[in-house]
Amino acid sequence: MSFWNSFAYFSPQHTNKIIHTFKKIKNLSTTIIKKSKIEEELKKKFLGLNIETINICNANCIFCAYQYQKRPTGTMDTKLFETLIADYAKIGGGLLGLTPTVGEPLADTEIVERIKYARSFKEIKQIGFYSNLISLGLHNLDNFINSGITSITVSTSGLDESMYKRIYRSDQYKRMYNNLTNLLIANKKANSPINIAIDMRSDMSLKETRNLKDYKNILKYIPEKNCGYKFRYDNWAGKIKQSNLIGKMKIRNLNASLHLRISPCYEYFNGPMVYWNGDVGICGCRDIDAKELIIGNIKNSSIKDIWYNSKHLDYLNNFVKRTPEICKNCKQYNNISLYQDSDWKEKIKQHKNIY
Predict the structure, then answer these.
(1) 319: closest CA among 256, 252, 257, 266?
(2) Are 137 and 186 in contact (CB under 8 A)?
(3) How far apart are CA 23 and CA 352, in angstroms?
(4) CA 335 → CA 21, 87, 286, 312, distances in Å?
(5) pTM here?
(6) Tens-of-pLDDT digits for all 355 residues of the chain?
């Protein structure tokens, strides 16, 4: 049997995985050869802004490091938020994320007004966040849908009440599910201004998860392609271990050969995280106590000046030889070869140089 004949016996899933792996190898090779040039080009861009308006959550998920958060909880001052948004618009705006490092954005009672304010600036074209939807009832649904939010990813377990209790450690499943159904119906009625996806964290197999009664029912309101299934999880820089997880859930095992630590993590270039108290961090992804990668405070400087200050540039220039402790054991790490993907290249082109 020839190589190409044997290749035909791979399933579409295997074929896609092979193609994906080849692309990653190609991107990695390009990055190794052109690393300095790619880094210098990325430094010139401001790829987005993420704001944590609140770091309080109404669930206690087994896979999330919220359970280990030690810093004070709070909500961002309205004036501080508005100053930050205006500051962001001045340098060109772009994407705005409102997903906290840990926390639930809809638990912020002012979130709808914040979204409206941000979208009043023509420079801020897209706003999105992750949400468990438990607190959606705090807000008028029609008002929320028409606020200017452009995307929501709903974080939930497999759509089953007992699983929700196991994984989200919450008894609010019915409320969440009703909120999800109502949101999908109202969004469609309003001509779908919000791109909605469901990200299911399941302790069952994909087949078992898709066979759940409530999952089958939700497909009346959302295409299956918008429903993701996750069983591999990040370790939150060592805070989450396999012993935290159950059933089919596994800690991600990075392919070290494709995630060589040849550059700063891509998050170091992906725009700042501004925490509820005004602190500005390099990584809004895993610094749950907002202390290990802080480079300034928005109360004292503009967001542009902070992002391009000597502290951030020192982190960028010395990541490989002086890796911060929080990054050494982080399975979320990805080198800047990620930015060689065609989708990312197109996004980067849309941002003007500001440095």
Answers:
(1) 266
(2) no
(3) 27
(4) 15, 29, 16, 17
(5) 0.91
(6) 333 343 344 445 555 667 667 788 888 888 889 999 999 999 998 999 999 999 999 999 999 999 999 999 999 999 999 999 999 999 999 999 999 999 999 999 999 999 999 999 999 999 999 999 999 999 999 999 999 999 999 999 999 999 999 999 999 999 999 999 999 999 999 999 999 999 999 999 999 999 999 999 999 999 999 999 999 999 998 999 999 999 999 998 876 656 788 999 999 999 999 999 999 999 888 899 999 999 999 999 999 999 999 999 999 999 999 999 999 888 888 899 989 988 888 888 888 888 7
Residue with the two structure tokens 């935290």:
244
Cβ–Cβ under 8 Å, residues 94 and 48: yes
CA 118, distance to chain mean position in Å, is 19
**Is residue 49 classed as helix, strand or coil in its secondary structure?**
strand
Check if the beta carbon of residue 76 is closer than 8 Å to that of residue 54.
Answer: yes
Residue whose C-alpha is closest to residue 223's, from 187, 265, 256, 262: 187
Sheet holding 294-297, edge to edge: 227-230, 195-201, 151-157, 124-131, 94-97, 49-51, 273-274, 279-281, 294-297
Sign of CA dihedral 311, 316, 319, 323: positive
Distances (CA, A) of 319 to 210, 236, 253: 42, 19, 22
8 Å CB contact between 287 and 281? yes
Three-class SS state of 246? coil
The Cα 259–Cα 227 span in angstroms is 27
